[in-house]
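User: Predict the full complex structure for these chains.
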Amino acid sequence: MDIGWDDLRTVLALVRHGSLAAAAKHLDVSYTTVSRRITRAEAGLNLTLFERLADGYRPTETAVLVAEHAARMDAAEHDLLRKLRGRDSTLTGPFVLTAPQLLIANFLAPVLDRFCAAHRQVELRVRATNDLLDLNRREADLAIRISHSPGDTLMGLRLTQQHNASFANPEWADQITANPSGPVDWLIYDQYPDVPKAAMQAHLGSRVRMRFDDMVAMLGAAQAGLGVVRTPMFLGRTTPGLVQVPVLPPHPYADIWVVGHPDVWPSAKSVAFRDVLVDYIKAQRALFVA
Amino acid sequence: MDIGWDDLRTVLALVRHGSLAAAAKHLDVSYTTVSRRITRAEAGLNLTLFERLADGYRPTETAVLVAEHAARMDAAEHDLLRKLRGRDSTLTGPFVLTAPQLLIANFLAPVLDRFCAAHRQVELRVRATNDLLDLNRREADLAIRISHSPGDTLMGLRLTQQHNASFANPEWADQITANPSGPVDWLIYDQYPDVPKAAMQAHLGSRVRMRFDDMVAMLGAAQAGLGVVRTPMFLGRTTPGLVQVPVLPPHPYADIWVVGHPDVWPSAKSVAFRDVLVDYIKAQRALFVA
DNA sequence: TGTCCGGCGTGCAAATATGCATGTATGGAT
DNA sequence: ATCCATACATGCATATTTGCACGCCGGACA
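Assistant: Here is the predicted structure of the four-chain assembly.
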């Protein structure tokens, strides 16, 4: 009764991902290898861990037990690798940053540029996504996030407050100037689905023309003149073809934070990046507020 | 920055055991393999984990950190394998019992015999030692111990109380009968180093003739007539050539327990062994008490 | 019904890991 | 001074592990 640790890890991956191919992708081996490691694990433990079904491997109760313990081992490994990263005092090698797409595209590019210029040896990898990557599992070293708090177990630095306001293309702006209480067409972002009542009353006859699940698409529609959007100041101001319109007064919006796992936070690369970032933000703070 | 789990385990073994050869023995591979796995781990992490010294590998601070986390993984593995054993409902395969040497030699042999006869498929392994094996680390499935409680995190069943008393060879017995208050020579076991005052006063002129760290040796000396020993009833009674002498009155001694880890306790083989054991002990309880 | 696709098993060659044998260095015992 | 034991490095042959190519199966779909 014995099992190698790499085989345990393989059982975990298969329980988590359900098929040989999926597990193999996460482990970065071929599914053939996964298959044979599972066979070996079952032989070593003298137990059946999976039922082979037509649509994949189904874990037995025993395999779930195995996977639970392997998950503890997995957590310990992540914990270790985070701590090792935190102790890394070099300014060389990989460094992974994640931030919302639009923040990178419309604002952060100069920060990335300066950081890379100052630290030529660092291999910066940017993960531009609105998904919250799991910093516990080392999906990124540092994250820039728009939220009210750094979050659960993470450390954070609040970079700036920000406001949002209403923006539209110049034709809409002219029209609103000409008729300040006329109706407007709204473009609405799913995550902020309600139009303030005051705006509806001040502009009788307004309607929600479209709803979007994607901010990039919505801003594009606004540029094309499809309507008025409510968006953070920095986005409205940095998107060509949009101007602020006096439909909504500026309103406080979620803050911008730089957050990281406490273990990784003190690493040299993380410190260096924050230096550049904070420096730049200080100079640019006016962009974010009314 | 990456490391295989088996390599982590190897780092742990090397930190724990200090030399390639020692680590290799515990991992059941050759020290060459350990050496190369360490090299690979260091390359993978891009860190120095050990200083190569003339008298072995010395772990760096980093390696200690790695080992701490690997130890958590190790604990999770032991936890898992214990639980798997506990779920084992077969009466086949290996089963490891540990008990004090003398308990096995002088009393338990019939239990082992009956258990093996009843369960021919079980490969019984007996570890006769006075050391307390680590049941957390699966050094044994079940232990029979002489102690006041089952201990820390273990489960237990108290098999019997017992008494101790004074024993010697027949010549000493005759001599004591002839002169009930005459001096006696004591043979003393290190773990119970004091002779009761009452006995010294009742037998003026008595002395401690020798001290032993080993009960087998001490009983041998008593058989040879070197003096009087204080020993559990069952040992005095089952050691040929010894008879009880009225120097010390019987006195309560530590109980006999069968203990196991709660995870392993319910396994079929463990249950089956306890059945045979408890059955036998019930019939033999008189042997242990005055 | 024929085709495609996801999911899997298997033979074989290549890549990788392992063990053995041998060689070096160091410290202690004779 | 010499010998021995411990601890490690390294070349080489062997074992094991891996990936690829190919084939099988069942279900979805035109």
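The interface with chain B takes residues 1, 3-6, 8-9, 45-47, 62, 65-66, 69-70, 72-73, 76-77, 79-81, 83-85, 87, 93-94 of chain A (CB under 8 Å).
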